[in-house]
Amino acid sequence: MATAGKVIRCRAAVAWAPGKPLSVEEVEVAPPKAGEVRIKIVATGICHTDEHILTGSFPNVEFPVIPGHEGAGIVESIGEGVTSVKPGDKVIPLCVPQCGKCSFCLNPESNFCQKCHISEPQNLLPDKTSRFSCKGKQIHHFMWVSTFAEYTVVPEYSVAKIDAAAPLDKVCLFGCGFSTGYGAAINTAKVKPGSTCAVFGLGGVGLSVVMGCKEAGASRIIAVDINKDKFAKAKELGATDCINPRDFKKPIQEVLTEMTGHGVDYSFEVTGHADTMIAALASCNMSTGVCVMVGVLNSGSEISIDPMLLLTGRTWKGTVLGGWKMRECLPKLVSSYLEKKFNSDLLITHTLPFARVNEGFELLRAGKSIRSVLLF
Ligand code: COD
Ligand code: ZN
Ligand code: ZN
């Protein structure tokens, strides 16, 4: 490409300080160094976690920063030594890398690469410098992906090459929301055919859990949300029952236990709130139930539980990116999408030009959108 080796000036949404709206700016994006890939981002989704960055409650983020972690694009140029992708390839940048070398990458049971942002900050690329600047100031990366930029630079092990036929404005959701929820049911919980499930929170991630439970053959999928406007979509995607905790006087865990006899086989917490974390755990069968935590509490917050909840046999698990080893699994997920095994397009309620990024966040905050996709 004509731009290879040169600094590119392009648009990006910069979060200058916590609590401030994003500001669409012209930024400079330096060429990729050795082992890095520069990607032209075509489409990016707005995930709830980006909202946590804006409010300053997400751990390990440094300002000013270019957020965004649910994008898809085309390789513009590659740094020295890069072999797995070439200019022109369609790719999804990965907010959980797969370095292929750490003990978790080498363990077939784990997808939590030790180069993940929870293990080490990812505000700068691995060589501890940034490729972004704006108005003479260095801008930080986010999780090494920063998809709210027309061009971004990521390490090679944070990129998955996908089928050239994939529609980037749809599969961008595979960078986070869809893969996280769908995989939480399939990989982390390993939902069995004929089982009962409860999903707390019906945003883009929770609805993807519903899709995963359906794909795994669950016979009953109970969707729980305080916003009843989410129920129609949940039913369309496979929920058999929809309940609003605010419609009941008794705690929702008691309602679910009564509905199912002894509690559900699998419960999923996908709201990121303390009370629903405890309710989700208590809602699954006291002996064999599995509760998967997908949501994250605001930085620094904690919850306490009665250990009796676990003593009788429940399993309480967490999941990151739905347990997928992203570089090897994402291309296969994209192929399944192209084969119409599931329809993740139903999660996209709004498509907006990139300049309207703040409107996308307003829609999310107001509970009016599932996923807004921004197009550059
Ligand atoms: N009971 C039931 N539902 C509730 C409650 C409650 N008390 N409170 C809120 N909800 C519902 C809301 O009405 C909404 O429908 C839903 O919960 C949340 O949906 P969104 O659209 O705001 O959020 P998502 O689906 O984009 O993301 C949800 C997460 C919980 C995954 C997210 O907030 C989070 O915690 N992310 C960090 C976890 C992580 O690592 N995720 C993968 C990388 S981002
Ligand atoms: Zn996300
Ligand atoms: Zn690794």
Automatic annotation (TrEMBL):
Q: Which UniProt keywords apply?
A: Acetylation, Metal-binding, NAD, Oxidoreductase, Zinc
What cofactor does this one take? Zn(2+)
**What GO cellular component term, any one, is given?**
cytosol
**Organism domain of life:** Eukaryota
GO BP terms: namely:
retinoic acid metabolic process; retinol metabolic process
Which molecular function term from Gene Ontology is one that the record holds? zinc ion binding
What PROSITE patterns does UniProt report for this protein, alphabetically? ADH_ZINC (PS00059)
Enumerate the spans annotated as Enoyl reductase (ER) domain: 19-374
Family (UniProt): Belongs to the zinc-containing alcohol dehydrogenase family.
Q: What is this protein called in UniProt?
A: Alcohol dehydrogenase I
Originating species: Corvus moneduloides
